[in-house]
User: Which sequence fits this backbone?
């Protein structure tokens, strides 16, 4: 293992006899998830007195000694950068960031630095979960560059695994505020339409036939009718790329300012230009989840940002 790795001496006692090895290890190393431990064992990171042990399903005999070598997560090519972050919550396991519009979440082609990950590396001093990979340490989910609002980040692998399970079983509460073109005739509705990458434009997401894409469900509610527009709340049952933007456009109410899905209607173009509003009017306003390390349910709210508030005020009937 590389320099700077963490060495963990482990003693399994008679009470562990008959357990799977990965389960026993997880019981004595609570800061590492069972999935992480499986991967470490399989890679040869665990040694007994007789040599490496590579099968995480091995049955424990009891009263056994091991040494586990945990490499530090590989640093991304991007360096820590002192970019201000608005932190809504932080403890030793995770933090919740209130992201401004315009900040990319993680490095990718065209945005190799100046991202939220660069800021997190500076803020956390390297204590981010390595499960997200080299380019995306700590990132469990993301929101678009030009969408503002709340995002949770994992500091430990256990937190990352626990949060990822909640995203997978759709138990995370996510509510967005959007200003859409036109006033919906009904007060609320559900869009249940699968999404996949567009076959004609790889930068776009499209609604596809059942079986071709991933199921996507958005519950929307009209909050405030505006002048040829409306403030809408969207609750995500699933969380797919561009979900709110595509689903609202599919019912003829695209988000104002959306450059990809048709949200710059002629009736609003002059106002958007006057305000310099050049993004989709979308804000991740509420985020709720169960703390993955047994600290109960947490819920966070973010007020609508000033640029959307100004747009809203100018559209009030």
Assistant:
């Amino acid at each position: 293992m590389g320099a700077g790795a963490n060495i963990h001496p482990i003693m399994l006692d008679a009470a562990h006899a008959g357990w799977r090895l990965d389960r026993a290890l997880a019981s004595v190393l609570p800061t590492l998830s069972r999935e992480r431990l499986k991967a470490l064992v399989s890679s040869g990171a665990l040694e007994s007195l007789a040599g490496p042990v590579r099968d995480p399903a091995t049955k424990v005999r009891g009263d056994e000694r091991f040494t586990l070598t945990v490499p530090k997560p590989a640093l991304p090519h991007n360096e820590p950068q002192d970019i201000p972050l608005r932190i809504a919550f932080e403890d030793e396991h995770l933090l919740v960031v209130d992201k401004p519009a315009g900040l990319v979440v993680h490095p990718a082609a065209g945005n190799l630095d100046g991202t939220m990950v660069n800021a997190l590396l500076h803020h956390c001093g390297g204590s981010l979960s390595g499960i997200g990979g080299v380019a995306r340490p700590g990132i469990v989910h993301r929101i678009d560059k030009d969408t503002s609002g709340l995002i949770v980040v994992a500091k430990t692998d256990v937190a990352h695994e626990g949060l990822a399970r909640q995203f997978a079983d759709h138990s995370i509460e996510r509510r967005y505020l959007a200003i859409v073109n036109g006033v919906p005739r009904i007060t609320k509705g559900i869009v249940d339409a699968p999404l996949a990458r567009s076959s004609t434009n790889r930068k776009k997401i499209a609604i596809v036939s059942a079986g071709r894409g991933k199921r996507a469900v958005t519950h929307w509610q009209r909050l405030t009718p505006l002048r040829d527009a409306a403030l809408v709340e969207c609750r995500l049952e699933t969380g797919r790329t561009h979900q709110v933007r595509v689903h609202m456009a599919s019912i003829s109410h695209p988000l104002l300012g959306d450059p990809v899905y048709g949200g710059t209607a002629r009736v609003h173009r002059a106002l958007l230009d006057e305000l310099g509003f050049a993004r989709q009017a979308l804000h991740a306003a509420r985020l709720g989840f169960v703390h993955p390390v047994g600290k109960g349910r947490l819920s966070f709210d973010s007020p609508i940002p000033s640029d959307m508030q100004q747009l809203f005020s100018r559209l009030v009937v």
